[in-house]
Hints:
single chain; 17 helices; globular
Amino acid sequence: MKRVGLFGAAAVVGYVLVLFKIPIPYMLGGIIVMASAKAFGDPDLFWPRSWRMLALCVAGYGIGRNFTADTWDRLLNQTVGVFAATFISLTLSVLIAIWTHRHTFANLLSCVMGILPGGLTQMMLMSEEDTRSDANVVVVAQTLRMFGVVMFVPFLVVHLLGAEVLPAEEVAQGAMSGGLSWLWLIPVCGLGSWVALRLHVPTATLIGPIIAAAAFSCAAGPLQLVPGFLMSIAQINIGLYMGAMLDKEKLLRTRSLLPYILGGTAVMIASSVLVAQFLAAHYHFSLVAAFLGMAPGGIAEMCLAGMSMGEDVSMILTYQIVRVMILNITVPYAIKWYFDKNYVG
């Protein structure tokens, strides 16, 4: 019954945010409700991981279907920009980690693992396996970074960059009409998740469906938009799961880190705006899409925000997924190389 109440409360808060034209309203509603319930009520509340995985599959399909054959051509024309933006983002993250390490009790390894954008799952797993890092620092830093970006970026794009949240009906009308039934979501995303899990791809239930839906869309033709009610349910589940990640006890134990984590996140968001201005001017796409592509948040969160504003989701996805793939493929090896056996933490 608690979960039914939480889901209902998240839906109500999400609807209120819809009235205020806030991007990703139902996801934010889930985060707000669960975080509040844990902070002021039962600290042991959690949301089933399996529900979140199903929700990510729906979100992955909704994101991946935006890919077309033209997207690949545009990606080739923007290769330099994509990789340069990724390099800037990762370099800035390392500099913030060094700054945090020098001014707090946390060692450098923990700070690096905690601040890298897009590495939430991978860095948490690595911190648990490497005893030289402080897993508590990594979890708190990654969680607060994600919370800060997901909560703040939607307000920023609306109030600073002038983006406008479109009604759900208008988003649906602006999507590709006709095409193959959205029910292809089930076999396409099921297969994509299965393959990604077998290959140990990070966040497999999101990236697998994204790649599968993108490949299927390019090969077989456009796919229909996911029904609005289904996407709203997915957003609520993702938001409730994210909200459950907040742990008051861990926050209290690492409270001296909070100014550095939040300050570092603010610097990363500000730098994303600056880089986005260059990308938008050079490649001639909107500043909002460029910013959401650069923002140090999650793929699902930034792409869903772009959907709600009628932005070019394929471009947002390109910049986000390249950064995540590079981070999750190369950074673990770089960390093991730099923090060798002689590093004591």
